[in-house]
Amino acid sequence: MGDIAVVGIDCFFPGAYGTDAYWELLLRSGDAIGGLPDERWTAADFPAVSRGGFADGIDSFDHAFFSVSPREAAAMDPHQRMLLQCAWRAIEDSGTAPPALAGTDTGVFVGMMGGEWGRLTMSDHRWVTPQLGAGGSAGMTANRVSYHLNLSGPSLTVDTACSSSLVAVHLAVNSLLSGETSTALAAGVNLVLSPSLGLVYEQLGLAAPDGRCKPFSAEADGIGRGDGVAVVVLRRLEDALADGSRVYAVIRGTAVNQDGRSNGVTAPSRWAQQKVLEAAYRRAGVTPDQVRFVEAHGTGTVLGDAIECAALGAVHGVRRAEPCALGSVKGNLGHTEGAAGLAGLIKTALALHHRLVPASRFADRENPRLRLAERGLRLLKSPLRLPRGETVAGVSSFGMGGTNVHAVLATAPRRIAAGGSAAARVPAPGSTGPTAGVFTLTADSPEGLRRNLAVQAAAVAARPRGAAAALCRSSNRVKTGLPYRFATTARDTGELAAALFEAAEADADAVVGTRRAPSWSRPTVAFLFTGQGSEYPGMTAGLHRESAAYRRHLEEADAALAPHTGFSVRELLLGADPRVRRTRYAQPALFAVGYALAATLDGLGVRPVAVLGHSAGEFAAAVTAGALTLAEAAELVAVRGALMEELPRGAMLAVGIGRGEVAPLLAAEPEAVLAAVNGPSDVTVSGPVAVLDRIERALRADGVRARRLGVAHAFHSPGLQPVLGRLRERAERTAAVRPQIPFASCRYGRMLREEPLDAAYWVGQAAEPVLFGEALEALVRESAPTHLLEVGPRPQLLPLAGRSGAARGRDFLHPCPGPESGGRELAEVVAALYRAGLDPDWATLYEPRDRGDERLAPYVFSTESRFRNGRRALAAPADTAPPAGPAHTGTMEPASAVRTPAAAAAASGTASQRTGGSREVLAAVIAAVSEVGGYANEEIVPTTRFYEDLGFDSVMIMQLKDRIEARLPRLGEISVPHMLPALRSVATLADHLGVQITAKAAPAA
Q: Could you give phi then psi for residue 337, rounded to 5 degrees?
């Protein structure tokens, strides 16, 4: 069979909440057995079965994260609640943001034993509700995960007793191999909610008096039960390798069989166990002597251990260099029943990943009657260090009813286990390190964001100090998709940890770089391309060193320009050549920078809704807009720059007054002309040097701002006439194409309509004034960008836009704001747009060496809401009203009885008839919503959304209809089809109902 990669893991075991904690427990041979938590049952009533591997906090559930109402959460089986959170964290651990799997063929295969919750909560038929029907079904456990994560692949819960979760793995593996799924979640969940099964074990003589399993020990005396929730994310190995995923271990083969008719339906069969091992090894293509260790079922019962060792010995007792090592995690956790197989598989995968097999608890007093040595087996009394190269291991799990399963695992391919190929870690030519990255984090609420910022800060601070880019890249893949966004830039982990700690300690509303990015709102960006006068030696050299994408696009521009310029723009820039200030060099260099920056931004997913170019900047703008090809624009720019170099010496002067105020000065100096109108109080004058000297002195004497531009010619003046004919000749050989995106023309001072960018346009825009201010006003008015992004080597247009007032309310961005700029400034632009709602194409931001998969701390869910008693949190039966109380408390102890329709009518119907009005309707809707969902009234506000915020479904909508009809009897029967469109928010529903009441009250015509 093909190989399957284990790419993600999360687990929740007693004393080990998370994968790292689980591994640490195993390494220290930890004991997770203890007394009974308070919320289970009264230990004094059942002392013989009140010790075991019990986990704290199984009543905790972050219902708001999953848009589950408190009432529904209280009705849900804790198995469902715990598994939802565990599945989310496992997907994150696989290097994928869970929302990214929405709509995919991802399958969910859950092993779960029994259905205690349904028996506990459904036995009193007076308490039965639709929510409890769904919440108490074991079969719904897998479906919950598929539903809330929007996964479209197979979704099923399997119950083969104690082998359930490893059978789920077997089913997931075969689904992947058949092509039915591309990703599969295999899970096991087991929570000890009642003493019932423990009493069964006791009556069968299988219960350990001290609640501990002692596998293969001379002290073995029975089973101790344990809690466990575990999820692994599986993919086909070739897919995982192609995506660069971290691989913990590889599943080489699995097999399942049945005891058939043995000594009893609950009695194990040595022969069946032997056969399932042999079948698994055949499917995996290995022989027993290659299997270095086996994670056994190992319950610690006398009969079970004896039969399992006999079966293992029959298979492994062959000629081999050293005995097959043996252990069982049940010595640490107890028997986690439906989750037991995955507890063993995760232990094995981690052992292969770390190349260290933990010792088995209670191995120091090995049971001599098991004859392990003569059967080719060795109980692990101390950790086993695994050698280099491939190691093969087995995992067994046997169900009480005779369903047996064995899985064969092996170490991951070496280059993946090491976290990426060595080639990927070699710096690219011309680059330096460390480069800047953008660390992203999202959460469902400001409080959730701050909570997870603190966790990430501590995790990053615990790392050795080093480059942060790979960690940032992993955060972009994993920690995205939720509505509240955080992003910060960092070069190393020390800097990143400090930024995360600072944000975590700030007030929720004051966290720098945080905002709620609504799904319907995305930033719209307009590109402003800088013209001549912004150039300087060495411009964008820092960005070239730190951005592989920018290097690539600059080389494209250089290759397009070189045949026409006779020099390399790339060498000009990187060599800090002062010739860049001369026109024949400056214009091609600025074009190359503008093109390369725009192409880099496009690769990052930053695509403009409109473009504007100032003078020479219009050529790069035209390429971005699709009106010129790179080759066409490169030739035009090279010719334009060379022709303008021939012009007599001249000057240009930026003046801080309007065109009307400068007119008298120009009238007095006929050789000077208005070259640009950049805003109401920003114009540029062009003319001979001596003339502009006189104008500058006059302006300064009057206290007017005047600044000489760094150009050597009088551009946009009649002085260009000698070269315009040759420019037209060349431009006429270029195909005239209309821009493909809105183009703000600085020649016309408006958006282009049907006009092509033809030869006449390029000649006119060279000689005529630049109407930047008017063009900017038109762009903002017609394209309504949220952000203005200047594309050039330093800010020149954004200050003009700010002074003009035309861009009021827009955010300004610049990816290269000056000579010291590098990759960090580009990263900060992407971070700002991400916070505003953009979903960038992150890979373009990073060097190839920084695209490895770094493991991040998993999401930390809120533990504030606790749901301890499903029955008491549900609606009362129609003839029995429990004591009234608050609708929702922190512990859901419940509070709350939902009033019956009759009671609701008595309490609010008469008031409804007395008062009327929209306020009364809104109050009735809020009260009804609170009752149906189990929310406190103050949690519901007019803008609350039914589906996104409250998790309403069709069942809850019908319940809401009944509650509203009872509270507002004047409405009569509400039409559900008419009500559905109004269920956008509480306010829209109240408005809809108010209209209905008004219509019914109106007198007939």
A: 50, -110
The rounded distance, in Å, linking the Cα atoms of 391 and 864 is 44
DSSP 770: B
User: Active-site residue 162, yes or no?
Assistant: yes
Which residue is catalytic, options 316, 335, 553, 992? 335
Does 913 score more than 90 pLDDT?
no
Question: Within 13 A of 29's CA, how many CA atoms are on the CB side?
Answer: 13
921 Cβ contact list (under 8 Å, min separation 6): 968, 990, 993, 994, 997
Q: Which of 170, 297, 353, 553 is catalytic?
A: 297
Q: 682 exposed, middle or buried (CB, 10 Å; 0-12, 13-18, 19+)? A: buried
Q: Judge contact between 604 and 827, C-beta under 8 A.
A: no
Strand-pair partners of 141: none
- H/E element, 408: strand 403-411
Q: H/E element holding 9?
A: strand 4-13
- Which tokens in the block code for residue 38? 């308070």
- Catalytic residue, chosen from 11, 162, 309, 746, is 162
Amino acid at 626: G
The CB density around residue 827, as the number of other CB atoms within 10 Å, is 28
Residue type, 325: A
Q: What is the 3 state secondary structure string of 200-222?
A: HHHHCCCECCCCCCCCCECCCCC
SS (H, E, C) 50-93: CEEECCCCCCECCCCCCCCCHHHHHHCCHHHHHHHHHHHHHHHH
Enter the pTM of the model: 0.88
* pLDDT value of residue 908: 36
* Euclidean distance between CA atoms 677 and 657, whole angstroms: 10
For 747-759, the pLDDT digits (tens) are 999 999 888 899 9
Has 324 been annotated as catalytic?
A: no
The amino acid sitting at 326 is L
Beta strands in 266-402 (DSSP E): 291-295, 324-327, 356-357, 377-379, 384-385, 392-398
Per-residue model confidence (pLDDT) at position 520: 52
The 3 state secondary structure assigned to 621-658 is HHHHCCCCCHHHHHHHHHHHHHHHHCCCCCEEEEECCC
Q: How far apart are the first and last CA of the chain?
A: 78
Burial of 320 (0-12, 13-18, 19+ CB in 10 A): middle
Using CA atoms, how far residue 606 sits from 524, 541, 546, in Å, is: 9, 22, 19
Which tokens sit at 919? 């306020």
978 is catalytic: no
pLDDT of residue 379 exceeding 50: yes
Distance CA 188, CA 166 (A): 8
Token pair of 483 as six digits: 């509505």
pLDDT of residue 513: 52
Q: Where is 241: in which H helix or E strand? A: helix 237-242
Cα–Cα nearest to 425, from 851, 855, 856, 853 = 851
Mean pLDDT value across the chain: 89
SS3 6: strand
Give the SS3 label for residue 226: strand
pLDDT of residue 555: 97
Residue 133 CA from chain centroid, whole number: 32
**What does the alpha-carbon distance between residue 78 and residue 378 come to, in Å, rounded to a whole number?**
39
Closest by CA to 72, choosing from 919, 874, 982, 920, is: 874
Beta strand pairing call for 4-13 and 228-236: antiparallel
| Alpha carbons 270 and 273: distance in angstroms, whole number | 5
